[in-house]
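Re: [ENG-882] Designed sequences occasionally contain unexpected residues at chain ends

Forwarding the minimal case from QA. Structure tokens:
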């Protein structure tokens, strides 16, 4: 039996957290003993947290002891931001080196001690190189193999690229787009293997759509456009709000993109996060208070997706979004930004529409086509459903990850 330490440095519960839990629930535990080391005990609304969920699976959970950086380091960061205002790359490098000397090296030493104490054979990191550099360094210092699960595109600096190429054993990428983005930055292609995220196709919504609509005050004959995700800038929910503001009252008779009062539709955004206040201001500015609803976090997001007629995700950066898989499983047409990840899920013109990033007018046009045609919504939704149950099952995901575990350990 191999001892594997899971390292997760994330601050919030996201799609990567769900994918990790799905893996741990299903992987053959006869061959592996897992221990989880997290930086934060991320909560899932008020109902649970990651420590509870990990321990429920019979896996030991550890929190890495964190140390506050000296005040002088914070001052130096602010000084650098001010002094280097003219060059984003230099600002990021300035902050990186301060973090490296005053946080990353210390965290690497701490992680290395844990690896030794627990007699770990493999370090499995649940994100990407720029947030797991200390793990890569720790595994190198202890002399064990390391596997990184790259779940999103990320911009790397030369030190992070060099560290990954020299010391990382293998990198799983959740999509071809994520793999290509890392290779273009200089990560060796031989390190990278694609294993697509998957979904349990037996999932059924716990709450029927009419109950969801009743809860949110949505009429039976209103078209529901929706999205799900943490309310952070990269999700670009403000673009969705702007797109809704461009929907005409009768899409069949007015040119797409003509600004008008919206009638007969509702938009729901499921999630919580730091951008909530800014998004509410955008809603108010566009006089959409009675149209767009910020529901807050919902643990049973798939029930809310099932109550939608059209699913929209206009993020600027993704890996392979589970929420799109969930929407496809619920037979919903998907409108998404044409970026890495969604492009591998959404068949443009067949299961939904891919639109240029930031072009909310195009998003409004795509949504309008679906609003006016129940037949098109049904056709694209069914096409998406057949695609997900054929290509993106949870079994394929588990088998792909386990295969790499075995390859790394020489089994």
């Amino acid at each position: 039996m191999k001892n594997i330490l899971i390292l997760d440095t994330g601050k919030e519960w996201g799609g990567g957290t769900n994918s990790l839990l799905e893996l741990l629930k299903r992987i053959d535990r006869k061959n592996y003993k897992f221990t989880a080391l997290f930086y934060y005990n991320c909560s899932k609304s008020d109902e649970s947290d990651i420590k509870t969920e990990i321990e429920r699976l019979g896996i030991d959970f550890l929190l890495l002891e964190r140390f506050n950086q000296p005040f002088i380091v914070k001052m130096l960061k602010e000084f650098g931001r001010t002094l280097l205002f003219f060059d984003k790359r230099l600002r990021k490098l300035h902050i990186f080196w301060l973090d490296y000397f005053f946080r990353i090296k210390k965290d690497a030493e701490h992680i290395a001690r844990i690896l030794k104490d627990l007699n770990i054979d493999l370090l499995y990191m649940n994100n990407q190189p720029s947030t797991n550099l200390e793990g890569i360094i720790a595994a190198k210092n202890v002399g064990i193999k390391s596997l990184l699960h790259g779940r999103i595109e990320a911009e790397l600096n030369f030190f992070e690229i060099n560290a990954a190429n020299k010391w990382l054993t293998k990198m799983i990428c959740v999509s071809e787009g994520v793999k290509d983005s890392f290779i273009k930055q200089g990560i060796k292609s031989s390190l990278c293997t694609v294993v697509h995220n998957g979904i349990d196709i037996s999932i059924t919504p716990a709450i029927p759509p009419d109950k969801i609509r009743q809860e949110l005050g949505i009429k039976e004959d209103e078209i529901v456009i929706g999205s799900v995700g943490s309310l952070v800038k990269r999700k670009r929910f403000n673009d969705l709000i702007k797109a809704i503001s461009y929907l005409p009252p009768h899409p069949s008779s007015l040119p797409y993109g003509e600004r008008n009062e919206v009638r007969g539709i509702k938009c729901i955004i499921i999630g919580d996060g730091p951008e909530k206040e800014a998004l509410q201001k955008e809603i108010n500015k566009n006089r959409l208070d009675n149209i767009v609803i910020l529901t807050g976090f919902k643990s049973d997001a798939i029930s809310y997706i099932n109550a939608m007629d059209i699913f929209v995700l206009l993020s600027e950066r993704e890996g392979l979004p589970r929420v799109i898989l969930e929407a496809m499983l619920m037979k919903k047409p998907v409108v998404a930004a044409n970026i890495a990840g969604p492009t591998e899920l959404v068949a443009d013109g067949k299961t939904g529409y891919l639109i240029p990033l930031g072009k909310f007018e195009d998003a409004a046009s795509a949504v309008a086509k679906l609003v006016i045609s129940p037949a098109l919504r049904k056709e694209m939704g069914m096409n998406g459903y057949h695609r997900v149950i054929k290509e993106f099952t949870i079994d394929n995901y588990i088998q792909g990850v386990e295969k790499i575990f075995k390859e790394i350990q020489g089994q």
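QA comment: On inspection the terminal residues look reasonable. The chain has two domains: 2-198+394-409, 209-391. Proposing we downgrade this to a documentation issue.
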